[in-house]
Structure of Bidirectional sugar transporter SWEET2a:
Amino acid sequence: MSLSQGGFFSTYSFFSDAAGVAGNLLAFVLFVSPIPTFRRIIRSRSTEQFSGLPYIYALLNCFICLWYGMPIVSSGIILIATVNSVGAIFQLVYIIIFIIYADKERKVPNGIGAILGIIQLVLYFWYSRSSVQASRRPLLESYA
């Protein structure tokens, strides 16, 4: 079959779209799967022995896939951007609930670490921008 006749290409397009929709449905099921855990956390008003790391990792994964699916980065894969934007919202809500119901002994050091991490990122971007502007000047200037 020739690609120009449309037979193979249309079959490929159909199965590609079907796999994309199936992947979105399965990803959505993955994003809503922690709901029973968070219902338990809200009812008991404690995070008990649950770890918040999986939700942070899932949020980072959603942000990376969301960036990859944006039209300015990759064209034609908007399904990836849509499902990961929904996933990022779910993960943010889970993390906020986790922070609200975390024990004080766990919340204070993590809060201090988060604030210091944000300050470190701001300083990095501030100084990296100024160093890029400074590096545009030539290292050696000729006065001849």
The first helix runs from residue 7 to 32. The chain has two domains: 7-102, 104-136.
